[in-house]
Amino acid sequence: MKSILRIVSIACLSCSALHAQESIPIDDFDNQAFYASGAGEAGIVMPFESRHLVQRPDSSPPVEITPESSSFSDSARADSLRPVVKRKLLPDNMSFVERGLWGESGFLRSVGLASPLTPEVRKSELTLRRTMLTVHQIGGFVTLGLLATTVYYGQKTLNNFYNPSQYRSLRRTHSNFVTYSIVSYTATGLLAVLSPPPLIRRNENSTTTLHKTLAWVHFAGMIITPIIGSKLRHSMNELQLARYHQVAGYITTGTLALSLIVVTF
């Protein structure tokens, strides 16, 4: 009975081998698996035509790389990479002067007075900006003191309008302080106007916004007041024009004082 079962099993395996040989290369299978030396205690020796039924461990079919699969792999790899984000070194809303001087192709960079735009260079420029604005603030208080002194001597000059000797002396002192005030005001303003731009400039209302708004007022006053004063000697109505000059001087000084207060306290 055992012999019959063995014969039937061998016949079935032989039929399966015939079908497998049609689609599977024999070289991909381990024919050593059923040699007599590897039969073990059972003493079963597989027929030669059935020995190729055990596949080699290393005979997995090669993966065919087509142009489509290659492009898909490249696109998948590209999608998996994090996009490179260029760091912004200048604010978007720069003023005309800032863009013309400190822009990526600004005048100072084109003539070599400022280094090409890099993170390290911008760090140095921000330090320079902080220094210039600190000096600008100190210069503002110096200018305010000079303007207050100018207004004081201007008021005394006006009070002695009908005292020619005192009037001429006081007017000379007043004119000297006008010159000092204009020089100090100009230098102080240029420190702010010519300073490098910040890293970020937010579009929001703040004390700095109010400070800049008041700056336009006292800037206009610093132009109008000396012009009126220069016309006093050539006017038929000198006293009336001196009153206008007086009011313009007070408004300019008061506006400058207010602009300093809002950013200091």
Number of strands: 0
Number of helices: 8
- Quaternary structure type: single chain
* N-C termini distance: 112 Å
Strand content: under 5%
Q: Looking at the structure, what is the overall shape?
A: elongated
Q: How helix-rich are the residues, as a percent range?
A: 55-70%
What's the gyration radius in Å? 47 Å
The ordered string of helix (H) and strand (E) elements is: HHHHHHHH
Mean pLDDT across residues: 80
Main β-sheet: number of strands, strand sense, barrel status?
A: none
What count of domains describes the coordinates?
2
Task: List unreliable stretches of 5+ residues.
Answer: 15-26, 33-46
Alpha-beta content class: mainly alpha
Give a written overview of the molecule:
This protein folds into 2 domains: 2-53, no CATH class; 96-264, no CATH class. Helix content is 64%, strand content 0%. The protein contains 8 helices and no strands. Helix 5 runs antiparallel to helix 8 (238-264). It is elongated, with a radius of gyration of 47 Å. Residues 15-26 and 33-46 have low confidence and may be disordered.
Entry keywords:
8 helices
